[in-house]
């Protein structure tokens, strides 16, 4: 018979489960869906976006034609959903809406260009398709978002609030498998996989450490493999640039990466990739007062007329 757990062990396990549930509830959750006819490629892009937002998203959310926006809003509270990511398509462009639930604001982007995950992965020589990388939320990396412009501040705040914050003192390096890159200069959004590999070794030693048994039939013994098999040209090897090297503060799950050892960071793009242009910011959920518009600028009379029209529509 197995040994029974004591009261202290049971309480510790219950408290750990309770902390995990509390962290899960506090984390921002999202619904990613489309409205109207968007076409096959945009639907695939929508599914790729769900992978980006995992694990705090409804990966298998079912959307029917008869569903209206209010249906999603009504169930959002029960699932702790804080953001909507909505894809739409018109005759002119494909659009992406980011909505803060339940009171807004709503940011509308024009998707100028996009590349699906399957296309990016197919172009890689050594794709990383490990499913464990989606068990934890990605690390958000933002560049050139420091500005006093109201639109840029709102955009920056929206992106930051869509992903859980990270406590530098408590974060586990083994949980950081992906990062979302946002560069304001080119409006490019990339999802990258962070990979740590040992440095300061020949390629032959790396293969042995990673448990990839090489073909040693042409060598007399292991020492000959170490000398001859490890000496290759720089063009064939993965270069270990000192700028990419770090001292690991924690032990990593991958082989050869130990605490206080020098390792190199490798980034592998897994997609999707999008080029976004901010078009509009409005109060509320998709139907409030327009706070910012890239192309249309209205005078005071037109603004007052729109306010009166919305008030009449509410009655």
UniProtKB/TrEMBL annotation:
Domain Brix stretches: 28-287
Comp. bias regions, Basic residues: 1-13
Domain of life: Eukaryota
InterPro entries tied to this protein: Brix (IPR007109), PPAN-like (IPR045112)
One family name in Pfam for this protein: Brix
Residue segments, region Disordered: 1-23
Name of the protein this chain belongs to: Brix domain-containing protein
UniProt organism field: Tegillarca granosa (Malaysian cockle)
């Amino acid at each position: 018979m197995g040994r029974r757990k004591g009261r202290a062990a049971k309480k510790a396990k219950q408290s750990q489960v309770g902390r995990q549930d509390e962290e899960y509830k506090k984390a921002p959750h999202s619904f990613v869906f489309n409205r109207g006819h968007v076409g096959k490629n945009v639907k695939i892009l929508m599914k790729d976006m769900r992978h980006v937002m995992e694990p705090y998203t409804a990966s298998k959310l079912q959307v029917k034609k008869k569903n209206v926006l209010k249906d999603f809003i009504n169930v959002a509270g029960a699932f702790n959903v804080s953001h909507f990511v909505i894809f739409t398509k018109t005759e002119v462009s494909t659009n992406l809406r980011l909505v803060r639930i339940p009171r807004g604001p709503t940011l509308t982007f024009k998707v100028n260009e996009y590349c699906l995950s399957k296309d990016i992965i197919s172009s890689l020589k050594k794709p990383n398709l490990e499913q464990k990388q989606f068990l934890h939320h990605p690390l958000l990396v933002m560049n050139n978002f420091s500005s006093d412009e109201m639109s840029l501040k709102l955009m920056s705040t929206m992106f930051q609030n869509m992903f859980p914050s990270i406590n530098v003192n408590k974060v586990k390096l083994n949980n950081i498998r992906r990062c979302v890159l946002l560069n304001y200069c080119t409006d490019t959004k990339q999802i990258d996989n962070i990979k740590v590999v040992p440095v300061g070794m020949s390629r032959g030693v790396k293969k042995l450490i990673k448990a990839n048994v090489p073909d040693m039939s042409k060598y007399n013994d292991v020492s000959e493999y170490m000398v001859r098999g490890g000496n290759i040209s720089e063009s064939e090897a993965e270069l270990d640039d000192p700028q990419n090297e770090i001292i690991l503060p924690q032990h990593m799950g991958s082989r050869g990466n130990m605490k206080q050892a020098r390792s190199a960071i490798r980034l592998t793009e897994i997609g999707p990739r999008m080029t976004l242009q901010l078009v509009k910011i409005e109060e509320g959920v998709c139907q409030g007062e327009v706070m910012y518009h890239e192309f249309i600028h209205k005078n005071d009379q037109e603004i007052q007329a729109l306010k009166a029209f919305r008030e009449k529509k509410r009655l």
